[in-house]
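agent: user wants the structure for DSF-depemdent system protein RpfF from Lysobacter enzymogenes. delegating to structure tool.
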Amino acid sequence: MSVPISRLHVSHDAPLLRHVSEHASRTDWCYMHADVASAYHPCFSERLLQQMLQTQERIRRNLAADPDPKAGIHHLVLASDSDVFNLGGDLQLFSRLIRGGQRGRLLEYAQLCVEVAFNLHQLYDDRVHSIAVVEGDALGGGFEAALCCHTIIAEEGAGMGFPEVLFDLFPGMGAYTFLTRRVAPVVAERMMLDARVYPVEELLRMGVVDMVVPRGEGRQAARELIRRNQRIGNALRAMNTVRQACNPVTLDELLKVTNEWVDAAMRLNDRGLKTMERLVRAQQRRAQAAAPALTLV
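agent: tool returned. relaying C-alpha cells verbatim.
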C-alpha cells in the first residue's frame, strides 16, 4: 500500500477526472480530461493529479472496508474523455518553475506524479488489477501512466512515445522502472531517448502493449477482459504478489529517479526551455482546434 508523499492544495474547480464505480463487476473506471467544454490541454496538470490521488485514496478506503478480504480481484481502469489518452507533463508549469528557479515546487509536482503512478501499479496490496485503455496518443507522462498499469489495451491508430529528449530531458516519473518490466533495458533506454512516437501495433509486437483492438472498441475490450479475469481472481491476486516479490517496484526507487529528473530539469539551458515552450504552444493550438468538436460529445 502506498504512503502519501505530499498534500498539495486541492482545487474545487470542475472535476477533470470522471469516476464511475461498478459494484457488480468490482470495477472503478477513471476517465481523465472530463472537463471537455473548454479548450482544455489534456496533460497531467496538478489539478488532474490531485483529483486522481483523491480518487485512488477513496478506492483504497473502500477496499479496506470490504467485509470479505477473500473477495475476487478488483479492477481499476484508466481511460480518457479526450481524443487523446494523455499528452504528458504540464510543460507550461515546468518552464515557469525552471525559469524561476523553483526546484522545491517542481519536486512537489514530480512527487505527486510518482505517488499517482505507484498507486496505479499497486493500489492495495494484491487485490487490484489495473488496466489502461489507450484510445488516442499517450506521450511522455501519458505513456508512463499506461505503463504503470498491469494491462495495456490500445486502439488502432494510437501512438505512444517519449518526446522529452527534444528539449534535452528524460521521462522521469516511472518510464525506466515500468518499461524495463516489459522490454530489455537497452531497448527501454533507446525508446526513452529516440523521441519516436511508436504505433501501438509495433508496441504490441515488442510486448509493450498487451492488446490492440479496432478504434472505438477499447472500453468494450476492457469489459470483456474484466469478465474473464473475475473467473481467475484468486490466480491474479497470487500473480500480483509473485510479480512484486520477484521484480519489486518500490516508491523509494521511483522517488530516486524523479529526484534525478528534477535535477536534470533545473539544469536545462535556454535552448531546451525554448523548445519546451514551442511544444506548449503547439499543444495549446491543438486543444483550441479540438474544443468545438469536443463540446458536441
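agent: one observation worth passing along. The CA atoms of residues 178 and 292 lie 36 Å apart.
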